[in-house]
Amino acid sequence: MAAEKEGGGSSETARDAGKEPSLEELICSLNLRGEDIKGLFVAKSEVETLKEEKKWMAVIRVLTSKPFNATSLKQTLRFAWAPAHEVNFRDVEENRFLVRANCLGDWKRITKQGPWIFRDYGPLIEKFDGSCSAAAVELNRIHAWVRIHDIPELYRQKKLITGLAGNIGDVVQVDMNGPGQDSRDFVRVRVWLDVRKNAVPENIHRRQWPLGSGF
């Protein structure tokens, strides 16, 4: 019986010997230590394959120093996102989470729509390709919609509005009318706000528009 077992094992080894080892198997066989791994070379084709397997990810941090229930955050965001497919979370460290969508549409909604709200606090969300540690991703900005009121008709031009909104943050979108609203006294602008700075400069609340030909 022992001989048969040995023979079976040899046959299995022979079969495996004909297979090309995976990248993970090759790395494990090298028995590398931590200081050796930083110099490891990975072929570009392998990198592209790994990126394809690990796509549609983002890193999230809630803009608060107060403690909160992580389970509640995940439930709230899943409800707000209403994803077509399952969305997975992984805790990276305190108040930092890795989220992975399972389709492009859900990923775009998570990273490009919003702003999303959790208990009156804004989650900071950045796209993530997995090429570095999720803990190293900078999370310093948030999407916001800003209203600019009382714009004289002469200056109600997208180019001029974009220039004005640039005082607040990086302009993503200018909405001159808005869905279902043909007439109103303000324009909406979607911007990236840097949370390390004052969110909105004081003079932006009631901007004085010039009466002459200048802007």
Provide a descriptive summary of the structure in words:
The chain is built from 7 helices and 7 strands. The chain has 215 residues and is an alpha+beta fold. The longest helix is centred in the first third of the chain and has 16 residues, at 2-17.
Summarize the structure.
The protein is an alpha+beta fold and 215 residues long. It has seven helices and seven strands, in the order ααααβαββαββαββ. The chain is elongated.
List the total number of helices. 7
The proportion of residues in beta strands is: 15-25%
User: Over all CA atoms, what is the radius of gyration?
Assistant: 26 Å
How many β-strand runs?
7
Instruction: Pick out the low-confidence regions.
Output: 1-15, 200-215
Major sheet summary line: 4 strands, antiparallel
Biggest sheet: strands side by side, in what order?
A: 2-3-1-4
End-to-end gap: 93 Å
Q: How confident overall, as mean pLDDT?
A: 76
Q: Residue share in helices?
A: 25-40%
**Which structural class is indicated by helix and strand composition?**
alpha+beta
Shape, per Cα inertia axes:
elongated
Order of helices and strands: HHHHEHEEHEEHEE
